[in-house]
């Protein structure tokens, strides 16, 4: 088994979701650390802007392509082109994701489907396409999967989102041991509040986003939230230090510990949180 990756410097590194938010911040941070980047996102304009920023700063992008990671054929074609031109990768970062909230009676099939297709099947498509060549290369490497605090805790209105993020957490826990013999470390990132564009655009089924009460909670969330740049720094440090669970804030670490140690108080807290959230549904 090879030693764990000490730095992304000089490493061929894939970042999905690179057009904005955590994905862009991580791509920029990795480029500044000397990584040779392969980038993708569904947002072609945002992706081009990320590539332009990296080039302006003297970073290196080997290849970029706008695609939907939920499209298996698009991912496999992209992987084929990457491997043909540059060989197997050293680091794969699954950062792209979408979010939608709502109670079960308000969520529509499209919400459930998009959460699973993008947040779970998307990373699976990437893993299926890029990890086997990494294994065969025998050089070791790193796999980063961005889950969420909602992949650890039962937040109100997060059923569809948590279905995908708990799934990604389970996948990562298995791969952590499966890939260890190949010298490939696995890192599960569990962000809490992060101030990205998703905060302003997340769809909440059955709730008016313009409701002043909702707006107050959004602003409170943003005041508490970490920046994408802070999260990117934690991701790179997590790789360097060989951490499986990468927390981006103390409250998520504490909350997960508290939920495991104090089951009954956790259950009571979640019930009260659901009651509070559901007050938005009452006219």
Describe the structure.
By secondary structure, the protein is α/β, with parallel strands linked by helices. It has helices spanning 21-32, 44-56, 72-86, 109-137, 159-178, 197-201, 212-224, 228-241, 250-261, 263-278, and strands at residues 12-16, 36-41, 60-66, 91-94, 100-101, 141-146, 184-190, 203-204, 245-247. The chain has a 7-stranded parallel sheet, with helices on both faces. A two-stranded parallel ribbon has the order 5-8. It is globular and about 55 Å long. It starts with 11 loop residues before the first strand and ends in a 5-residue tail after the last helix.
Features:
globular, 283 residues, 7-stranded parallel beta sheet, alpha/beta
């Amino acid at each position: 088994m090879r030693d764990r990756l000490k730095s992304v410097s000089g490493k061929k590194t894939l970042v999905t979701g690179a057009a904005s938010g955590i994905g862009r911040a991580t791509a920029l941070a990795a480029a500044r650390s000397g990584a040779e980047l392969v980038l993708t996102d569904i947002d072609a304009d945002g992706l081009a802007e990320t590539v332009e920023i990296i080039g302006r700063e003297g970073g290196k992008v080997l290849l970029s392509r706008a695609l939907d990671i939920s499209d298996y054929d698009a991912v496999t074609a992209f992987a084929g082109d990457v491997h043909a031109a540059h060989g197997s990768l050293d680091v794969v970062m699954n950062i792209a994701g979408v979010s939608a909230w709502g109670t079960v009676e308000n969520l529509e099939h499209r919400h459930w489907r998009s959460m699973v297709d993008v947040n779970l099947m998307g990373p699976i498509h990437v893993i299926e396409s890029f990890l086997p060549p990494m294994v065969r290369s025998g050089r070791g490497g790193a796999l980063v999967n961005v889950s969420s605090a909602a992949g650890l805790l039962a937040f109100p209105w997060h059923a569809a989102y948590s279905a995908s993020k708990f799934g990604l957490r389970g996948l990562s826990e298995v791969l952590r041991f499966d890939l260890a013999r190949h010298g490939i470390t696995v890192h599960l990132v569990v962000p809490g509040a992060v101030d990205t564009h998703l905060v302003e655009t997340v769809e909440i089924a059955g709730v008016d986003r313009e409701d002043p009460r909702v707006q107050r909670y959004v602003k409170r969330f943003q005041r508490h939230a970490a920046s994408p740049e802070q999260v990117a720094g934690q991701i790179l440090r997590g790789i360097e230090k060989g951490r499986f669970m990468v927390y981006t804030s103390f409250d998520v670490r504490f909350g997960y510990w508290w939920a495991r140690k104090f089951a009954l108080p956790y259950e009571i807290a979640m019930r009260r949180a659901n009651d509070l959230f559901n007050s938005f549904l009452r006219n």
